[in-house]
Hints:
With about 300 residues, this protein is α+β, with helices and mostly antiparallel strands. The chain is about 60% helix and about 15% strand. It starts with a helix and ends with a helix.
Amino acid sequence: MSIKDNALIVSLYVGKPQMTKTDERGTIAAEQANNARDAGNYRKNLYPASLVKPLRAVESAARAYLESVTYSWARGEYLLPTVRFMEVADRMDKFALEYDLCATAFLNNWANVMHHAKQHQGKMFDHSVYPDVSDLKRRFKLITNYKPVTDMSDFRVAQSMKDDERAKLSSVVEANTKQATEDMLREPLERLRDVVAKLNTTMLKPEREVVNARKNVIEVKPPIFRNSLVDNIIHEINLLHDFASILPDDINNITQLATTVVHDPDALRNSQDLREQTHIDTSALLGAIDSLLED
Length: 295
């Protein structure tokens, strides 16, 4: 099946007011203090970092989530399997609501925002560079955009173009789509390789000797690792399954192979034999992934 029929292109727009501004007096003072000239510009933070931290936290969380459930497509754009659309759309709506609530809290606390700005900036504070609060409100936005993967059939304007113009447009569209597809196909393998390599390395860790002070004996304990070591592999496998209809057979075969190296974290902790076998299995899986990446 085609990418167009089974995936969407998604992007995230986060709007916010200007957060920094070049300060001429600060620039002059910095140059004079360092005997410099035209060495750069001093940019001051218009708002105290502590007061915009909640907004930045929501933005970072939204971007991290979106990147975790998609593969890169183009600059600022990601490929999302259509089977995950409602799940992702619902989560992104929640991020938008969180961002709106943080922006509302920021604006409702405007007097305190300005008070802190004056304290932090000292003589560099300039009230005139700040927009009106009503203008600020419309600048705070967190919007998720969705659009289809396009091909020449989506360019209706092409029907009115000359043959040579249509041929040129077709060539450009096909080349761009081909390159984006080739780049996208590497990411699933690279992401899977990263999490499998961590499991592979961890399985080599030796058991630990720990002194039991109460019994005054030395006890042998398994190596320490978090459940996320396995959970991260499961996450990548699930995403690969969602994209299975548009991925080539060799990558889908890798996905199936990856499922065989996943074991319960406690089972791995409790069995050195299982850890040794998992190291062998993950080494083979890494070799298969590397072989595809080198093609």
